[in-house]
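Lecture 7 notes: from sequence to structure.

We start with a single chain of 330 residues. Read the sequence below before looking at the structure.
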Amino acid sequence: MRIAFFGTKDYDRKWFTKMNEIFNHEIKYLRPRLSNETISLANGYDAVCTFVDTEVNRETLKYMKENNINLLLLRCAGFNNVDLNAAKEYDIKVLRVPAYSPYAVAEHAMSLAMAANRRIHKAYNKVRDNDYSLIGLDGVTLYGKTAGIIGTGKIGTCMAKICKGFGMNVILSDPYPNEAFANEIGAKYVSIEELLKESDLISLHCPLTKDNEDFINKETISLMKDGVILVNTSRGGLINTEDLIDGIKAEKFHAVALDVYKEEDGLVFDDLSNVILEHTTTARLLSFPNVILTSHQAFLTNEALSEIARVTLDNAKMFEEGKDLINEVK
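Now the structure, written as tokens:
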């Protein structure tokens, strides 16, 4: 197939080019993100490939349909950025990568939790300045504490196993409990209210829906223990940022570790070090000593990138050959 890849970075080109030696698609790598203004760059191609940081709206999908581009490939698991109703109306198939390396995300979540907890980001900068004092670097021991995992899909279950490995008690919350898994690792499912009240570490591993947007807000934060550690490697929209900031200022949290945040669109994946940002809540978050942010990089391991490339290109092959689209978003 002829595929136009939008918003590509060097690591995309490296792994997709290597994997395409097996599939032999014709790939056009484009640096601009997919948008209503850039979609015309896909003229003459059979499919469009984009990432989670791009909104695919009705106008873009209409242009695709009018130009006989009937396949949208998402090189990611999330699909809340796509107007699925419009895609269905225009009969454009949307295929995704449902699971590429759940351990990559879970490992990053625990790395963030530990870094924020032990103030590794502060300690690193202090030592660089020959400041070897320990003031402001107080952490908490995770062994014996309670980890609350919200969402027990592939990534959430990996995180639960990691927490168990740290000697933590693990409680779980999910609309669709996996009791067999809970029994396997010695964890238990509880109500979301109980999880918020009992957890010393809370890690979010759920998709963003209309029902759970701003789930972490003033009310749910008030239920949490004082000194809780909050980690989010799922979707920024799960947290009401203003309420989170209020909670940080009120010293509700021992640490906050975020790989995703509401304002990340237009920020993550690009070098803006020489840009003056007129208004950004990320700067406010970074002003707190107990907060650590990364740039939506939890997925970024060699193994995950290789699997993303393989599944994406295989999705195109299955579409081309008229096979069952096991990774279709409906």
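The first helix runs from residue 10 to 23. Keep this in mind for problem set 3.
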